[in-house]
Amino acid sequence: MRLHSLIAHLVTRRRGAVWSAVAVICALSAYVLVTRMKLDSEVLNLLPSGFESVEGLKVYNRDFSQVRDLTFALVCQPEDVDKLEEFAPQFAQKLRAQSWCLRVLSGAPIETPEGVRDLQSIAIPLLLNLEPGAFNETLSLLQPEKIRERLHRLHSELEAGSPRPQIELGLDPLGVIAPALKPFASNAAIEEDQPLTSPDRTMRVFLTVTNQESIGAVECQKLMRDVKKFQANAHQGWDGGPLQILVTGRSAYVAEISLSMRHDIVVTLLGSILLVGGVFYIGFHRWLPLVGMGLTLLLCCLVALAAGLLIFHQLNMVTIGFCAILIGLGVDFAILVFGRYQQSRDEGIDHSEAVSEAVRNLGKAIFFGALTTAVGFMALMLAGSQGFTQLGVLIALGISFAGIFMMTVFFLFLPRKNSRPRNDWMFALVKNYVRSAVQRPGFMLWISTPVLLILTAVALSPKPPIIFDVSTHSMEPKRSDAGYALKTIMEKMPSRWEPVIGIVKATNAQQLHDDWQKVAAHWDELQVAGKIKSYSTPAALALSPARIQTNRQKLRMANLTVARDTLEAAIAAEGFSHDTFESGFILLDQLRSAADPSYQLPDWRTKLPQTSSWWFLVDRYFAQDPLLTTGFVTTNEPVATQEQKEMLHHELPVEGVPMVLSGWSFTLTDLVPWSHHQLIVISALMAIFDATLLALLYRDWRLWLIQVATLALAVCAMIASMKLLHIPLNLLNVLAFRLVLAIGVDYGIYVLLVWQKARQLDHDVAGVVKPVILAGLTAICGFGSLGAANNPTLAGLGYACAIGLFWSLAATIFFTLPAAAAAEPKSWREESLRPRVQQPENV
Amino acid sequence: MFKRKSQARVVCTVALAFAFLAPLLQAEPLSPADLKALLARIREKRAAAPQVQADFQEEKTIHMLNKPITSSGRISFQAPNKFRREAKGNSPSITVSDGQHLWIYYPKFQSAEHYSLGKRSPLDAGIAAITASLNLENVEATYHITGTKEPDGYQLQLLPRNPSMKRFLQTFSIRMNNDLQVVRTEMVQPNGDRIVTTYSNESRAPISASTFEFTPPAGTEVTTPLGK
Questions:
Q1: How many residue contacts between A and B have a Cβ separation below 8 Å?
Q2: What tens digit of pLDDT does each residue of A111-164 get?
Q3: What is the pLDDT of residues B75-111, one digit of tens each?
Q4: Which residues from chain A sit within 8 angstroms of residue B91, using beta carbons?
Q5: This prediction's pTM
Q6: What are phi and psi of B113, to 5 degrees?
Q7: N- to C-terminal Cα distance for chain B?
Q8: CATH 1.20.1640.10 is the classification of domain A426-470+671-836
Q9: Which residue of B has its CA nearest to A582?
Q10: Is the Cβ pair B163, A85 closer than 8 Å?
Q11: CATH for A499-541+622-662?
Q12: A1-36+290-416 belongs to which CATH class?
């Protein structure tokens, strides 16, 4: 039994068995979904792997605790700046009182008594880490005459009204902490590097670290619910005008994105179903096949999702676009199959035979259609992005299942009794158009060819340029509170642009120290040369065990007892209060302990209280693994061009120090060539695949040439439309070009395969052109519905695909068809249009 | 000997008389209108002669020191924010500000400190407090002011309005004679430190611009304690 007959037999005579098989497949798929469903909300998995900058960004996001940071901003009216200054400490206090808040940075730590005390607690290891010359010089400050001289000078300065002695004695009564902190000082200038108050004083920024255990979507949503409650009540005590309380940070973004996923699923799926259903009903005026089509498509989605979960174990958020895309694509097959089936029924053929006829006539077209589309989506694997690989594989699987199920399961939903034929205005219209295009192809070509050529000229012309948006903003959700907060902070503090990060991983503490010493020296040269604006490194905190050992030996030579006695005497002589020097005496005791070789020096991390604001500084540089560190380079301008990126790539690394350069702006700039590669090379490969397939399929160079020209013109028209409508390309919607090539080529295949076999040209070709138009419109609706997604990646992809498919469809109808007719002699066309049997006009 | 005893008796009598009569010479609080009028008069006077020079004597009670420290010298001021303060004695110093930079020079140590002003550092609040007593221009914007009329002049109590000033200054009182010359100021800081300054020999003659300029002498060690 031939395949089409077997299928017809099964779906008409063995319906129970087929239904049972469908039920088993549904049950198995549902079981897989329920037991294994795991969504990956990591936006970085959408970026291609294999890029050092992308991997660096992933490491930075995964291993550094800054991922648990939330940044709050208070924004007031200009007349309330003094009130804001007064309110800021209250707000910081409220933040500290929140159960989810681990610590808060509301100002430079050095300006608070706690910050000074915390710094004093880690002074000994920093002192012992000084380079030999600096350590000797610092140790000499403990000589009796130096102590006496220093205290006398401080007394004189106090008399003169200098603020220095008060600052100096508050932090460093003994005079040895300041030299110890000197290497640390450049890094400690948080306020200078990243100011916490805007220049116009209308905004105050508060950095917080939360205590959330994981950074998964559910935890972030929970945290943000608490944060929203806090935001709602945090105005208490404020008596000025309008005050905005903004919050941003990774958790805020993850919560928003994961919540918007739900919105996107509902909106895009419902949108797809409504639009596709509407188009189908307008085309065929039947509900039952529409319901059958919808259920068959849902089955495709279900099975493909289950297969995807079995293959990948978890699915990225971008795959939520899969259902909408699959409905947009799979419906093509349903419309084509049903169109052919209905044509047979209207010609008086019975249900079973009509099924067999539909499968026999369209099996090849649907096979090749599914093949080109599946290959087109599988090509997403070449992007190297985990998220898009999943999307490509899922759609390729889904489209294959759609091809199979539309040729089998779909027929279970079709009524065995045919309803009364109705007047099909659409078919009549299409048939008239086909007849006219075949009779006078030149007329139609004179209209369509110039339009397409003008659009091609626009596409190839450098003006207007196509907008290529590589900013981080292009990846943010459209309606995002976190995005608004970040934008406001960036606007109010234009000097706060994102630095380039250099990640260094060492195998031991000594290597880490040596590496950062080299890097710091090199970056210092770059700063002096004006190649970078500033930099900060963990060099001061990357302690050298060898150096500490040497300095401890030197410390044993110092007479700390005499130093103590001299200090006591000098305090009395200069009239200083003893309390002022209390921390100095404690430090002397600690130095005495450190000089003892049997004494185990405590790890400075254990000495720094968990609530200390200095952790903001430490966590900036050190991951959970203290040997994984990062330094920051602030460029002269925000990183946006290839030249900047190349310069940084060339200048920042240091020979012998393995370093990964990253940062969002740096990475996105790094990915621009990849994106261009995606746009040009892989789309070209896809076009070559299509062209080869078409050559094998048609075996007619004229039809082949027409189809290839159609594809080229459609893609150019797509580019021109995006230029004229100012729709930007971003790093991800460039993938739309290959999708358009993959889907657009199908329309030509459907039309030209029937063209080659038609017995009566206008009737047979109209019989396929009408479903192609309906299929094209449904695909456009399917992709267009993605435009409603809050996720800009999906929305951008949806818009680009919808525009591309519109031009593919238009080019197929108004260029391919008349061009194919024009390629034939007039006598052949007239002969082909002559009816051989009377056909009803209601297909 | 007799003469000396007689003089001492006179001094004691006068002192006792002041002590008994003092309650009778109660200071009268100034009404808001009177205060406004007084500030307007001060502004008028300052506008006529925006510069002033005077001798000063200062007593600082600082929590870091067991005993108060005293110093004396001459201060010059040019509205709105230029000043020069030269302290004499065992620990001489010269403090010069042109409104943007502040220099403190120690001749004895051949060292100088340089500070940049206008960066909203705590130092700015301190300088604003110092110049407020000499300038009194627009003080209403920075301080809540109350005043009293006293037999020999006026006493103004200034309470800082904005938080940055509050961090530096708790209360600030200015005493003026009937000619509206500042004769005494007293600053109390939140940490309890207190600075009392008395002024004498006030002059409103023009001051050379170079007075408010400072270039460290050759060989001076210059430091920037609060950074650039």
A1: 80
A2: 777 888 888 888 888 889 888 888 999 889 899 999 999 998 888 888 877 778
A3: 998 888 888 999 887 778 899 998 888 898 988 888 8
A4: 155-156, 159-160
A5: 0.68
A6: -110, 140
A7: 63
A8: yes
A9: B64
A10: yes
A11: 3.30.70
A12: mainly alpha
